[in-house]
């Protein structure tokens, strides 16, 4: 495979950026990877793990001379990074990001980028509950989706970024920023807030001791705790910057939850049964779309006879 | 290992009962397993898979002469089964169940059992999103918890049932019925209802097409769909029979969710960050308690470098 970008700058070195570095190296997709992170500790760990060719101290140093700059910092920090790197970006460079919200990133970043730089926001739909430079691995994007928001960028530049993501294993879809934010509010942002809430409620209940909640969490709650273990800074920024869509979906959620609570209270078993039967079909669709395994319990430490 | 019960009757042949059969055979724990199910199709499949020594047509036939009778039918069906088998139970036999709710099962079953029969309700905290006689496997209970509710039963009978569960791989805990129902409302029943609701909301949103919701579900939503794919009949009965505890927890949940929604609306990032940081600790506790793996994304088809 030939080199797609000569020099790539990763700004922010958490799970997403480090996994990109591993995946780019796996495929021999880029000439050189330069990385930076705000914290000296993160930079030291990244040097130790060694997934970049060079680690530098500032975003401006990393971005200077890069053909592709990847903003992999929390959404709330992107504006300041864009302001710092804007003056040093080389003409014809591409700037992209990996934030979970797209409209707010465009509003924060675009004003700081000079003419002649291609800005193509992106969002790889992959992750684990782990974060930081030690958590990355090359296979994170294999067969996952990456959404790109061309936002008027030149076709050639967009295709080049698209081909990088495909070569890292991902399927690429183009989407409008607002539509992205609504779809993600449904599939990711609202579910995360709900999981955070339920885990918080369990933590609050003094009558149910910690050990009990933990020991007896084999059922649904365990999956909620995995979701709720995600990076707090990242998620704070997601909710603050995708406010409208998230609140709209949560409004719908609350309305439906009240209807089911009423069915429980009044003993309306048919309503519950019909509702639960309908939701099974969505799961079937996800497995058929290849986005999850059909193995029971996600294949957690079980073997079949 | 010596035989713990000579003859075991499994009434209901879904995931839980068939996994018990596989686990009992793995350990050579019982002399003979007799199974029955209400539907002829289920009985035929169970014969084909072959996890019982004999499949009979009625609960009474299965229970007659059995040393241990396991009620593995939906909670709402247990009273009728108890009424059917009560007259044929042999003196000194033990009756247990595997229902997700304990107070309602005691109320429905106990009145039908003759004196001289030991009734020890139980609840193995294990499962997958699959159901039916083909879905069972011997390892389902390995290192999972099984809660027993002795409810005044004789110590010797309780210890014998306890030893069966331990030999099937489970850790056993004794608990009062009402406390069980509250703990499970927190760790399982409320999370399931919430997952069902969120999946239902996604399904309703005409503006977000099915394919999008399915393709882009890599994040939290995918875990919700797994939970929401569980057996509709079983869950209908859980909510109808653990009504008070579930509604109480859902009330707390809604209260907390409203507080977080307000924080999003007013842009209170500190509140969100603090809340999300606190929930991370619970996840850590679950991993330390050995009830889940630390592998990213549950070890779903990813390999580490």
Can you count the beta strands of chain A?
9
Strand content of chain A: 5-15%
Total helical elements of chain A:
12
Quaternary organisation of the protein chains: homodimer
Largest interface: A-B, 113 and 114 residues
Examine the secondary-structure arrangement and name the CATH architecture of the largest domain in chain A.
Answer: 3-Layer(aba) Sandwich
CATH superfamily of the largest domain in chain A: NAD(P)-binding Rossmann-like Domain
Outline of chain A: elongated
Which fold does the CATH topology of the largest domain in chain A refer to? Answer: Rossmann fold
Radius of gyration of chain A: 21 Å
Helix content of chain A: 40-55%
Give the structure's gist in a few sentences:
The structure is a homodimer of 305-residue chains. With 305 residues, chain A is an alpha/beta fold.
Key attributes of the depicted protein:
homodimer, 2 domains, Rossmann fold, disordered C terminus, 3-stranded mixed β-sheet, 12% strand, 6-phosphogluconate dehydrogenase C-terminal fold, 6-stranded parallel β-sheet, 12 helices, 305 residues, alpha/beta
């Amino acid at each position: 495979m030939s080199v797609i970008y000569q020099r790539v700058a990763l700004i922010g070195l958490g799970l997403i950026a480090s996994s990109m570095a591993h995946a780019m190296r796996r495929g021999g997709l880029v000439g050189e990877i330069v990385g930076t992170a705000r914290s000296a500790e993160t930079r030291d760990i990244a040097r130790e793990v060694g997934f970049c060719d060079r680690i530098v101290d500032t975003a401006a140093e990393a971005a200077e001379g890069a053909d592709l700059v990847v903003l992999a910092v929390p959404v709330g920090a992107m504006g300041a990074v864009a302001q710092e790197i804007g003056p040093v970006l080389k003409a014809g460079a591409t700037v992209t990001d990996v934030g979970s919200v797209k409209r707010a990133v465009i509003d924060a970043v675009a004003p700081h980028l000079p003419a002649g730089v291609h800005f193509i926001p992106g969002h790889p739909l992959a992750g684990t509950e782990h974060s930081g430079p030690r958590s990355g691995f090359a296979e994170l994007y294999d067969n996952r989706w990456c959404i790109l928001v061309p936002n008027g960028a030149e076709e050639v530049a967009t295709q080049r970024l698209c081909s990088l993501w495909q070569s890292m294993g991902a399927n690429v879809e183009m989407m409008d920023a607002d539509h992205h934010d609504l779809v993600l509010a449904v599939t990711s942002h609202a579910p995360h807030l709900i999981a955070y809430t339920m885990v918080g409620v369990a933590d609050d209940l003094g009558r149910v001791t910690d050990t009990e909640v933990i020991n007896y969490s084999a059922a649904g709650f365990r999956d909620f705790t995995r979701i709720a273990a995600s990076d707090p800074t990242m998620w704070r920024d997601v909710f603050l910057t995708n406010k409208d869509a998230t609140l709209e979906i949560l409004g719908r959620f609350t309305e439906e939850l009240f209807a089911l609570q009423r069915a429980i209270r009044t003993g309306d078993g048919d309503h519950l049964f019909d509702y639960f039967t309908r939701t099974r079909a969505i799961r079937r669709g996800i497995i058929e779309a290849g986005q999850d395994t059909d193995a029971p319990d996600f294949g957690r430490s079980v073997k079949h006879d």
